[in-house]
């Protein structure tokens, strides 16, 4: 029975994918009537056929056997009246409409999307009668018990999800998981319907009502946590499974693939190395597995590893040239070669094969940005958000587009959503700060830059702050300087909520010290000296003899001596080892 319904569904699914003229068209079924008829049959089998539902409807409805007899009598009366009153040559008579006897149709409810209770009862009666004909010794209740199939429940939930009836889909998926907890497809569909962490906790409590903790449940929780960018907890679950679980898990490529995806999402240098190591382990365990290799190609693209990306594209193309992952890898390879037209062609093929591939949609949007096609890029990112609203790359890409077309308020909206999904990614904070800067919201911009200091690795955030200190902190107008100092301290307190005033002054002194080195490299010696004096004054105001404060004072003295030496020798073009040491020290903010 499952194969029958699955084949019918796949027929409509493939028709909606391969017969679309434009890839940006809606991916809903082309023949919605056939789709709803199939869904109606599945709902009768899985939902309307339960005992509780039949008892509720039997209170206000005539018995099923009486309805079948009534329908049979109506059909016989119709045939008899037609034979007696209508000549053979005039079957379509001219009698008035109110006197015509129309044939009762059992398919009338199928023309409407919502069926009435009477139609549902009639359909249930047909299923029950067909079951009794095939198995005369079995009762209707026994037939209903046999009909509880987890795979049919999963298929019904998939179809309900496609017409945005998500609440009903969640209920059916929970029933399917309780019947067959090893069906990973049901877990994956359930993960796509979870909107937030609160909903995840509610589902966990419902799935653990019988105190049965299945090992698939752990994999599901880790998968959802990584999807929500709560990466540390997800990685801990996977490590527990590898260390404490069965020995078979240590040679399971899926776990290493998920670990590689988690490290890929963190985007730190050490994390990226771990991600590449995990992908290397996957190739050793299963040389013909290419799932998630599009993420590996993204890492190679970002770090400009041209030769490795070409080798990877040849490897995956030799395994299966027409897989969606292979097409994404080839698209990244041509994009790295700056052949954006060919790259778009491969990403379009991947999207046509699987219109629910979020990675392919976002990469297609990136390529359209490179080709200056803002309209197509916006549509691509919006398609990605329709599939997965938690995809931060699509939100960030939309913000970049509106930034390019000089609409900062629109860009601010999308960057805010991206930052909510990735609160520890300094790129999102930098983008937000730049948009606040364009809209002349100085306090918000400074707050974003100070928050980004937690995750800055190359001093780029400090250079953003340097512009503010140069424009407002060194202004010739006293009122402007005082107002900027007040906003600056307020932004520091907002960004570093758990820091004391002494710690905030220490951070501010380090920023002054860094900017002093920066001005010295630009041969602005007067500004470098003034910033060094500001740093020294802050340390004196703290009246603290802690180790860090003494180290800052030592660096201030070294900076002043170096500036005087450079000014006396007409300046040196390069940075001295003392300046480099100071920069490294400042990264420990």
UniProtKB/TrEMBL annotation:
<feature type="region of interest" description="Disordered">
    <location>
        <begin position="79"/>
        <end position="142"/>
    </location>
</feature>
<feature type="repeat" description="TPR">
    <location>
        <begin position="392"/>
        <end position="425"/>
    </location>
</feature>
<dbReference type="Pfam" id="PF13181">
    <property type="entry name" value="TPR_8"/>
</dbReference>
<feature type="repeat" description="TPR">
    <location>
        <begin position="324"/>
        <end position="357"/>
    </location>
</feature>
<dbReference type="InterPro" id="IPR011990">
    <property type="entry name" value="TPR-like_helical_dom_sf"/>
</dbReference>
<keyword id="KW-0802">TPR repeat</keyword>
<dbReference type="GO" id="GO:0051301">
    <property type="term" value="P:cell division"/>
</dbReference>
<dbReference type="GO" id="GO:0016567">
    <property type="term" value="P:protein ubiquitination"/>
</dbReference>
<dbReference type="InterPro" id="IPR019734">
    <property type="entry name" value="TPR_rpt"/>
</dbReference>
<feature type="compositionally biased region" description="Basic residues">
    <location>
        <begin position="88"/>
        <end position="98"/>
    </location>
</feature>
<dbReference type="Pfam" id="PF04049">
    <property type="entry name" value="ANAPC8"/>
</dbReference>
<keyword id="KW-0132">Cell division</keyword>
<feature type="domain" description="Cdc23">
    <location>
        <begin position="142"/>
        <end position="259"/>
    </location>
</feature>
<feature type="compositionally biased region" description="Basic residues">
    <location>
        <begin position="111"/>
        <end position="126"/>
    </location>
</feature>
<keyword id="KW-0498">Mitosis</keyword>
<keyword id="KW-0677">Repeat</keyword>
<feature type="repeat" description="TPR">
    <location>
        <begin position="358"/>
        <end position="391"/>
    </location>
</feature>
<keyword id="KW-0833">Ubl conjugation pathway</keyword>
<dbReference type="GO" id="GO:0045842">
    <property type="term" value="P:positive regulation of mitotic metaphase/anaphase transition"/>
</dbReference>
<protein>
    <submittedName>
        <fullName>Cell division cycle protein 23 homolog isoform X3</fullName>
    </submittedName>
</protein>
<dbReference type="GO" id="GO:0031145">
    <property type="term" value="P:anaphase-promoting complex-dependent catabolic process"/>
</dbReference>
<dbReference type="InterPro" id="IPR007192">
    <property type="entry name" value="APC8"/>
</dbReference>
<keyword id="KW-0131">Cell cycle</keyword>
<dbReference type="GO" id="GO:0005680">
    <property type="term" value="C:anaphase-promoting complex"/>
</dbReference>
């Amino acid at each position: 029975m499952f194969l029958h319904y699955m084949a019918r569904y796949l027929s409509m699914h493939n028709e909606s994918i391969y017969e679309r003229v434009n890839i940006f068209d809606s991916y809903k079924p082309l023949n919605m009537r056939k789709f709803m008829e199939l869904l109606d049959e599945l709902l009768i089998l899985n939902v309307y056929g339960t005992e509780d539902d039949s008892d509720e409807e039997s209170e206000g409805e005539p018995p099923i056997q009486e309805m079948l007899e009534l329908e049979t009598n109506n059909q016989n009366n119709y045939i008899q009246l037609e034979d007696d009153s209508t000549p053979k040559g005039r079957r379509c008579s001219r009698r008035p409409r109110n006197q015509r006897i129309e044939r009762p149709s059992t398919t009338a409810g199928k023309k409407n999307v919502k069926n009435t209770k009477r139609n549902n009862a009639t359909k249930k009666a047909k299923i029950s009668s067909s079951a009794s004909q095939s198995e005369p010794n079995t009762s209707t209740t026994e037939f209903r018990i046999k009909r509880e199939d987890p795979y049919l429940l999963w298929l019904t939930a998939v179809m309900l999800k496609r017409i945005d009836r998500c609440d009903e889909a969640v209920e059916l998926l929970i029933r399917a998981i309780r019947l067959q907890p090893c069906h990973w497809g049901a877990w994956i569909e359930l993960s796509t319907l979870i909107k937030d962490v609160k909903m995840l906790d509610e589902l966990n409590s419902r799935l653990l009502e019988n105190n049965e903790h299945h090992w698939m449940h752990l994999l599901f929780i880790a998968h959802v946590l990584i999807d929500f960018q709560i990466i540390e907890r997800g990685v801990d679950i996977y490590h527990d499974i590898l260390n404490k679980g069965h020995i078979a898990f240590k040679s399971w490529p899926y776990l290493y693939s998920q670990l590689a995806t988690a490290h890929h999402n963190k985007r730190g240098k050490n994390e990226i190395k771990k991600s590449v190591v995990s992908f290397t382990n996957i190739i050793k365990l299963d040389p013909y597995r290419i799932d998630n290799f599009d993420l590996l190609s993204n890492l190679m693209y970002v770090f400009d590893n041209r030769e490795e990306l070409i080798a990877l594209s040849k490897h995956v193309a030799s395994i299966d040239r027409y897989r969606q992952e292979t097409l994404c890898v080839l698209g990244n390879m041509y994009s790295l070669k700056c052949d954006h037209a060919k790259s778009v062609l491969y990403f379009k093929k991947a999207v046509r094969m699987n219109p629910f591939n979020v990675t392919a949609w976002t990469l297609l949007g990136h390529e359209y940005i490179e080709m200056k096609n803002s309209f197509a890029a916006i549509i691509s990112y919006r398609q990605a958000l329709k599939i997965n609203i938690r995809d931060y790359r699509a939100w960030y890409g939309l913000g970049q587009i509106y930034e390019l077309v000089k609409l900062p308020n629109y860009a601010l909206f999308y960057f805010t959503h991206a930052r909510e999904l990735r609160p520890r990614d300094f790129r999102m904070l930098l983008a937000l700060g730049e948009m606040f800067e364009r809209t002349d919201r100085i306090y918000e911009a400074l707050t974003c830059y100070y928050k980004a200091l937690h995750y800055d690795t190359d001093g780029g955030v400090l250079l953003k702050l340097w512009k503010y200190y140069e424009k407002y902190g060194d202004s010739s107008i006293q009122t402007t300087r005082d107002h900027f100092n007040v906003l600056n301290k307020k932004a520091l307190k907002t960004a570093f909520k758990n820091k004391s005033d002494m710690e905030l002054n220490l951070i501010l002194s380090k920023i002054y010290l860094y900017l002093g080195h920066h001005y010295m490299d630009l041969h602005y010696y007067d500004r470098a000296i003034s910033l060094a004096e500001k740093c020294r004054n802050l340390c004196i105001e703290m009246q603290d003899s802690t180790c860090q404060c003494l180290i800052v004072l030592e660096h201030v003295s070294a900076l002043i001596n170096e500036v005087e030496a450079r000014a006396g020798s007409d300046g040196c073009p390069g940075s001295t080892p003392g300046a480099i040491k100071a920069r490294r020290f400042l990264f420990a903010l």
